[in-house]
Amino acid sequence: MTYLSGGIPVLPKGLTESKDEATDVPPGMDVLLDLTHVVVQQKIEWFQILTGCETRNQYWLKTTEGEELYHAKEDSNCCLRLGCGSLRPFTIALKNKNEQEVLRLERPLKCTGSCCPCCLQV
Question: Which residues span the membrane (predicted)?
Fold first, then answer.
């Protein structure tokens, strides 16, 4: 894996060779076709750093030159963030520069061990 200064990983392109070959690209994702790398940068939350309490994560997807392509924001429950930490369920909406949602990621509760009843699993 390639890293930029500051240890930021650069994700390689893996979609198609050219725009002409792209026939099934979802709306709003075509901006990625001409790129060879995308940088994912997480917003630093000082409250989380100082207290250790999980906060809603935010990310920016940028070109290697720093141009912002997308903004991703986590939507999750405060109680589940505090109680379940990194195992919590959440939804992340990926929006373009015009604030139009182009992708939605949903993660179910990932409760492991005997302390959680099976009915909590999604």
Answer: none
Domain locations along the chain: 2-120
Residue in the structure block whose two tokens are 């999980």: 54
pLDDT tens track for 33-66: 888 999 999 888 887 778 877 778 899 999 999 9
Tokens of 2: 């390639």
Number of other residues whose CB lies within 10 A of the CB of residue 80: 15
pTM for this prediction:
0.64
Rounded distance between C-alpha atoms, residue 72 and residue 105, angstroms: 10
For residue 4 the two structure tokens come to 């930029």
Q: What contacts 93, CB < 8 A, 6 or more positions away?
A: 72, 73, 75, 101, 103, 104
